[in-house]
């Protein structure tokens, strides 16, 4: 029998594999970076819920949802199919298109910043600010291109933002209180984008089929060999997904500005 719960609780950094919940009220619960492989939910009431993440093999009422979601996302975003390149030319095409898309997003961000100084440091629904998103992409490039592909054991820029679970890992600098201006982080990011462009310029299909050499030392990703194709696919996916996040949050920030009468946000 369900009883009245105590004030909202937080569960962080916990491991509960094979746990059983019955019956449990999770109304309005917020879950972030939660692992649910092999989870089985039966007799659930799932209404007005939002699920965002790496979802594969999910069956709801006997229907596998993944292919339906993938088809709908491809319909909404015609460029999305480019982000699954099959060969070296495909990776070059994907990267070129990502550059064009990000240029448009940055232009939109600059326009918002002019109208509302500080807005690009605002968090929307607890997610990274736009500046933090750009800082994370610097870290992602350093990790997968600088460290894994190019063999630098410690390529990390001090303004990079690791994903949440890696922020305390040894060897990863993380200036949590840093508040760089948009122009400052864009300058760093331009160097990283040029680095990827250089790698892709010389990429061959043969190289895609190879594996990287393990790079020792503290940091992320862990020191082992990786398929080159997988490394580059991670970078493309990071760029694609985080631009969508940025566009989503820019829309929220812009709407807030309109609702406030176009005034300047305190950010």
Automatic annotation (TrEMBL):
Domain of life from the UniProt record: Bacteria
SUPFAM superfamilies: DinB/YfiT-like putative metalloenzymes (SSF109854), Pentapeptide repeat-like (SSF141571)
Residue span(s) of domain DinB-like: 111-244
UniProt protein name: DinB-like domain-containing protein
């Amino acid at each position: 029998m369900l009883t009245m719960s105590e004030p909202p609780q937080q569960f962080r950094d916990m491991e509960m594999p094979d746990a059983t919940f019955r019956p449990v009220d999770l109304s309005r619960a917020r879950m972030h970076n939660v692992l649910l492989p092999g989870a089985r939910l039966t007799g659930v009431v799932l209404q007005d819920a939002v699920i965002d993440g790496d979802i594969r093999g999910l069956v709801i009422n006997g229907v596998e949802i993944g292919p339906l979601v993938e088809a709908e996302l491809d319909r909404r975003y015609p460029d999305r199919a480019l982000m699954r390149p099959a060969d070296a030319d495909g990776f070059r095409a994907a990267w070129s298109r990502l550059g064009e898309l990000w240029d448009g997003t940055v232009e939109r961000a600059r326009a918002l910043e002019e109208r509302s100084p500080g807005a690009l440091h605002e968090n929307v629904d607890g997610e990274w600010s736009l500046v933090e998103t750009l800082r994370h992409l610097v870290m992602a490039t350093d990790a997968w291109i600088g460290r894994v592909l190019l063999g630098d054991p410690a390529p990390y820029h001090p303004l990079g933002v690791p994903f949440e679970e890696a922020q305390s890992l040894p060897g990863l600098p993380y200036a949590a209180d840093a508040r760089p201006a948009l122009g400052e982080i864009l300058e760093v990011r331009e160097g990283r984008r040029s680095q990827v462009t250089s790698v892709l310029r010389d990429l061959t299909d043969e190289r895609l089929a190879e594996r990287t050499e393990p790079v020792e030392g503290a940091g992320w990703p862990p020191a082992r060999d990786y398929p080159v194709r997988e490394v580059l696919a991670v970078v493309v996916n990071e760029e694609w997904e985080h631009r969508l996040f940025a566009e989503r949050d820019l829309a929220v920030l812009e709407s807030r500005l309109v609702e406030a009468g176009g005034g300047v946000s305190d950010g």
